[in-house]
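notes to self, project folder thing:

trying the whole complex as one job this time. last attempt i did each chain seperately and stitching them together was a nightmare. two parts in total, labels are on each line so i dont mix them up again. if this works i'll redo the older ones the same way
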Amino acid sequence: MTEVILHKPFARLRFTRGARIWTVAIVLALSAVFIPAVWAQKEVTSKTYRSREREKSTGRYEQYEAKPRLYQPHIRDPRPRAELITLAPTAEKVRFRKYLADSHVGLRFYERRTCVSCHPQQARSLHAVRAKITCRQCHGDEPIAGNSHYNSLMHKRRKYAFVCAKCHKGSSPSFATYRIHEPSPLSLTTQKTFPVLFYAFWFMVVLAVGTFAAFIPHTLSWGLREFLPPTFRLEIRRYLPGKKKNNAAD
Amino acid sequence: MLLKRFNRTQRLSHLFLMLTFLIQSGTGFGRLFITTDFGRSLCKIFGGYEAAIVIHFWVGILMMTGFTVHIVYLIKRIKRRDLVNSVMGPDSLVPGPQDAQHLFQRILWTMGMGSPPKLDRWAYWEKFDYWAVFWGLPLLAVTGVMLKFPLLTTQVLPGWTLNIAALLHRAEAILAASFIFIVHFFIGHIRPLSFPMNEAMFSGSVHLEEAMQEKPLWVERLKQEGKLEMMKAERPALWYRALYFVFGYSALGFGLYILINGIVYGRFIQLH
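result (full assembly):
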């Protein structure tokens, strides 16, 4: 067999100079097409929101002056992330409001606040974020009964019929065990409230981290190594004590 | 001299997987990121949020059909007479102990110790790329079908399995796409030996010197078996070469577009 030929980085680059320039030009042009989307995001996604902020108007202004977007504007308001109400498994045991016909009875300033200001966690569900379904479309109007109140529409006996089936026709009790307000798989309490979700999540994390921890350093260092001449050798011996003489003899 | 490496069926399979995978990433990540500008512009390519899921579903079916056809092809390629050699031999993609050894040698070599592994026809990273599909595709297919037919699914399974299905579907999609857009693209495009593009999968052939440098055992084996002359391939036509360069770079650009934006906008989405 012929001896392995000299190490040749870019051996595949059998191109004329013109072709090389063209390749670079195409790459640059492609990045020009793709990258700007990154900068395009603004702090406030809605144009109308900002124009309202600057000038008070009748509200008609935005309809005529600013072209509405294809999708509803997603306004990223800073939402409280801390929970006002702990719904942790330990707290679960002492919560009594979930059995009340009006779970908010006697709460001060209830009328003046939005649902999300007190229940930030619940606003992060697929239904709210993606389908823009409001809390009331599921929880109904006042009074909002506790989910475990026997006659609540949200009671698991009738939730599937009175709530889910409004939109998901043919929904069954089994279907209604889908967790609308999924607990965050990152939190430790999920290990108790929804163990399968917790372990599925960490399984995928371990899988991904394992794959990338193995492949990214491997591939990158391999790519870098191909830049070095084939004669590159790590002379460990040189650094070992007592072997200096040998080295000098080499 | 050019050495034949992939036949037409294999190249078509790769092209098929490439196209369907990119469409699935476009429609899938478009929907996942729909609350951001990135997701909306991605979905717009496919006709919006609602249209994207229709495409996503049917291309998924197409993908699974292709996968089934591939399995039939795979079974047909096994030679009954020569079972052990055709399954475990050097022409097979089934991983063996020598792959672990090659990986080890490669790591040592990148650190400047020893010589590069003497690879045969399929290198360990190629085998990994190949078999990763066998874990990813069925998982995505099963969870995808579950989410597409939630009412039917919950007649058999409890509803909370949909939470799990959604989580697995997204996590696996992110894992697969980032693996392809980072590791696979790096090996195929950016690594000095393949830069600007590893053409083997499109032209079907590799240069002999390159093969000797990267897959010495394979070339040696071909020589011993006297097959080297038989494996001689034609140079791809210039127009064809230009075509797949543009195509390959478009795929690369699209992948990087999703990758970069996905990282930038990652904090605005959630896995569940």
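what i see at first glance: Residues 185-250 of chain A form one domain.
need to look closer tmrw
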